[in-house]
Amino acid sequence: MGILVVGSVALDTVKTPFGEVEEALGGSATYFSVAASYFTDVSMVAVVGQDFPEKHINFLKTRKIDLNGLQKAPGKTFRWAGYYDYDLNRANTLKTELNVFETFSPELPGEYKDAEFVFLANIDPVLQRAVLDQINRPRLIAADTMNYWIENKKAELIETLKRVDILTINEAEVRELAGEPNLIKAARSILSLGPKVLIVKRGEYGVLMFNGGSVFSAPAYPLESVFDPTGAGDTFAGGFMGYVASVRDWTDGGLRKALVMGSVMASFNVEDFSLGRIKSLDYKEIETRFRGFKRLAQFEDL
Amino acid sequence: MGILVVGSVALDTVKTPFGEVEEALGGSATYFSVAASYFTDVSMVAVVGQDFPEKHINFLKTRKIDLNGLQKAPGKTFRWAGYYDYDLNRANTLKTELNVFETFSPELPGEYKDAEFVFLANIDPVLQRAVLDQINRPRLIAADTMNYWIENKKAELIETLKRVDILTINEAEVRELAGEPNLIKAARSILSLGPKVLIVKRGEYGVLMFNGGSVFSAPAYPLESVFDPTGAGDTFAGGFMGYVASVRDWTDGGLRKALVMGSVMASFNVEDFSLGRIKSLDYKEIETRFRGFKRLAQFEDL
Lengths: 302, 302
Fold this sequence. Notes:
homodimer, 10 helices, 35% helix, 23% strand
């Protein structure tokens, strides 16, 4: 099997200066899975409530996402509501209703135990470990987290990090987790906690990857129309892991291309609300934008 | 002759979390000239007071900077005092004493009239035009400005921009000058005012260049020790223009290499207070760091 992702499936109500959506399909596992589905098979472990619209299930099936690990629990689906001002780097939360997500306990169908590639989206680090305990010997484990877990479950998070190969977090979280304002020193400190690779997400400034002694900086794509950044980080992770799993190249050069592929998918995602732009991409569009990133970053030797 | 720069020479008192200096050599024309001096001849048009230490004059002469256009006026030299917190992207001004700079009127020695490359550092846009009026037919005119002129002399600034080939300003200034929050739209709007090339300085996030339809993103160099960002923008411009003037290549590919060279020089500058790091670089160090930028930004095609 391809990639296993554990995370949230949500109904998002989002407002930006450019429009709004109500109870649109969202959640970290959703964005990740849809982005990764362009490159490889994806199996999703998550939970929804009894009110979860059947049309979303049908859509995820059109992307050939394996939903055997998607639990349906009594109660309502996880809901998030928030808004963005012109500074689209910063989400303002209006409402978080955990609902069925509050008691979520990931249980993996038997056939998932041989997953080779695992992405632990931003959930309680204890649950992230509970997932790893149910898997035999994954080749590559990537994980995300957030300031809430750094502040409230740091010891548990550090336990989880010991088992993670690739950590993808944003810039402020890197500084907070390491307790160090200089990003480069903070990155080195995090690499000493377990992960071999640290990917630093910087929103409209792109992505930095620390891989042992190598540092790679990928730009963000200059877009005239950014409508909604919700899910950009998970879409990035989906493109990144999906590409790695499909080409099976985890050399530094391979990871660099995968990082750009993640950035490609994230750049599409922010061009529309919810999954509007990434729900039905053409692979040619993806290749064309990858070449756009190449032109954007390219310069000759002296 | 090589490059003509007009701007300020200052005595800076700067405090950062990593140390402080008092009345150290600074000013836009100083940083620019020293950076450019590694690549080509530079002539400086600026003003100092009678209190300006002779040791600074001697230092500038060791960099072979032509000081025939450096006026010595009755009164005191321009002084700036400020501090930076851990967010080194943001300077906090404590004191600005314009002194002799208040009545500065750039007068070019006769031999400067044939300058081929001109950099108008951040001064009153009226004075920037007064410099251009004294020059015959420069091949390339680059200019910097700041929020103060955008807010207080916008019409004059727009007059100056009509005569400028390359504008180098920071990200917030791009948005403010264009009155548009989206950076890409703002850049296009500024390119319609006259400049053929817009260079957007983004501090620790690197530099973006808009050159007609081409966009280039250069990363910033990941540094473990950033001591003082004062002068980074002018050092960048000095490396950029110095390299352009030395290789005489203003194709898009040539400007991209020059942009990286500017970033190389700026990355050295922030590693020490005042001109501590860039006062005596070895050209080999410069080449080595250029290759470091190449490794930092490099990825393969699909």
